[in-house]
Design brief:
The protein has helices spanning 6-18, 21-28, 32-46, 62-86, 102-107, 109-119, 132-140, 202-212, 227-235, 283-301, and strands at 51-54, 57-60, 94-100, 123-129, 146-149, 158-164, 168-172, 184-185, 192-196, 218-223, 240-244, 258-264, 271-276. α1 (6-18) crosses α4 and α6 packs antiparallel against α10 (283-301). A six-stranded mixed β-sheet has the order 8-12-7-11-9-10, sandwiched between helices. Strands 4-3-5-13-6 form a five-stranded mixed β-sheet. The protein has ten helices and 13 strands. The longest helix is centred in the N-terminal third of the chain and has 25 residues, at 62-86. The protein is α/β, with parallel strands linked by helices and 308 residues long.
Length: 308
């Protein structure tokens, strides 16, 4: 019996998840002819066609659908074994490559990461900041181990876990005259000058939908894709912005900002952990995630929008 190689499984999973030989080849950092040859060899070994090829793309056959489940399980087991062997020394050490959205970098990161790196000198942290879609791409291309995002991608190869419930809040300066901490119904407020992210951001979609339904009234809109910039701008003007509460955790009680929970409309901004289904997370990565979850949970307990 001709053995099936790990490389063949990786290439098969790549084609299955990307629905494209060319995209799979780019993802696996190999040439398309080499990848295609490995898939043909695999099909000969299994004596089954795994994909239907057409000009419109690649779709798995019934055999391909079944073989994918086994392939993922095998790759996950192999990767788990590698992790365990790396951790067999008992030392809490290693490198973690993570991607975080700007709201988490600003709001949660300062509350746990300094203590974490101080307590674990053998751990190396590599952090990438970005929006949800680019971070998901980095996970798929194995540039990072995991990411925390607002909008998880719909992708066969990504495992998704909700790690925190969050809601949007209205952020303004005291010049706007709102009572700090009081829940607001957006439709009852006068039309606002609103700073919003660009249309390619998931936060913009959520807010824009409510503007169309007149649940949020706006006089003017300014686009800005920097969370830090948005907050600093509204702190010095009569403009406002709507952000996840996570983004302004460190500003609660600040005299320069007024933070108001939004009771209506309800705007979710939940946080999701994403990583490759076939790649278990290391002990160090899991520890980082648990610290982040603890901080998020602690602050959600003290910040609950008042009932409408």
């Amino acid at each position: 019996m001709i053995p099936i190689t790990i490389r063949q499984l990786q290439y098969f999973v790549g084609v299955y998840e990307e629905a494209s030989f060319s995209k799979a080849a780019a993802r696996e950092h190999c040439s398309q002819p080499a990848l295609s040859a490995q898939i043909r060899n695999l099909e000969q070994i299994l004596e089954h066609s795994l994909f239907d090829r057409s000009v419109s793309g690649v779709t798995p056959t019934a055999a391909g659908l079944r073989f994918y489940r086994y392939s993922i399980a095998i790759l996950r087991s192999v990767n788990a074994a590698r992790l365990e062997m790396a951790e067999v020394s008992g030392q809490f050490a290693g490198k973690v490559k993570m991607g975080l959205i700007p709201t988490v970098v600003r709001g949660l990161l300062p509350m746990f990461l300094p203590q974490f790196v101080e307590a674990h000198p053998m751990v190396e942290i590599q952090l990438i900041q970005g929006f949800s879609d680019p971070l998901a791409k980095s996970v798929l291309e194995q540039e990072i181990d995991f990411a925390v995002v607002l909008e998880p991608p719909r992708h066969e190869g990504i495992e998704i876990t909700k790690i925190a419930d969050d809601t949007m809040v209205l952020v303004s300066s005291p010049a706007l005259g709102l009572p700090p901490g009081a829940a607001v119904r957006m439709a009852e407020l006068p039309a606002l000058n609103l700073v919003m992210p660009s249309p390619n951001h998931i936060l913009r979609h959520n807010i824009e939908r409510r503007i169309w339904t007149q649940e949020i009234k706006v006089a003017r809109i300014m686009e800005m894709d920097s969370v830090h910039g948005m907050i600093d701008f509204v702190a010095h003007t009569a403009w406002a912005t709507i952000l996840p509460f996570t983004a302004v955790l460190c500003d609660v009680g600040s005299e320069r900002l007024c933070i108001n929970p939004i009771s209506q409309p309800h705007l979710e901004a939940n946080l999701y952990l994403i990583h490759l289904s076939r790649q278990p997370l290391s002990q160090v990565a899991r520890a980082v995630i648990e610290d982040l979850k603890r901080q998020a949970a602690a602050h959600r307990l003290v910040h609950k929008p008042a009932p409408a």
